[in-house]
């Protein structure tokens, strides 16, 4: 990672030097802040790479303390987790078999209005 960061900063410095030699000092007005921005960006990426890699390894289950490993892999009872029982089907009330007596339903209290009224 350090070699790649050095390469990027070196290429930015070389581009700024070539532009300065070709166009003179006005290039530094824009190129100077751009170069500082490139250096800052590369430093931030280099500093955050190690924690990001550790998080990726932790999520992939490479480390033994990964919370993403299954309960069986950790030696725990699988039904003792946060989502235990979430996908279990609850017992349902029994449904009358086909052809059984259906209770009468009350009809409308008033007849429907005629069309156009």
Automatic annotation (TrEMBL):
<protein>
    <submittedName>
        <fullName>Uncharacterized protein</fullName>
    </submittedName>
</protein>
<feature type="region of interest" description="Disordered">
    <location>
        <begin position="98"/>
        <end position="117"/>
    </location>
</feature>
<feature type="region of interest" description="Disordered">
    <location>
        <begin position="54"/>
        <end position="74"/>
    </location>
</feature>
<feature type="transmembrane region" description="Helical">
    <location>
        <begin position="34"/>
        <end position="50"/>
    </location>
</feature>
<keyword id="KW-0812">Transmembrane</keyword>
<keyword id="KW-1133">Transmembrane helix</keyword>
<keyword id="KW-0472">Membrane</keyword>
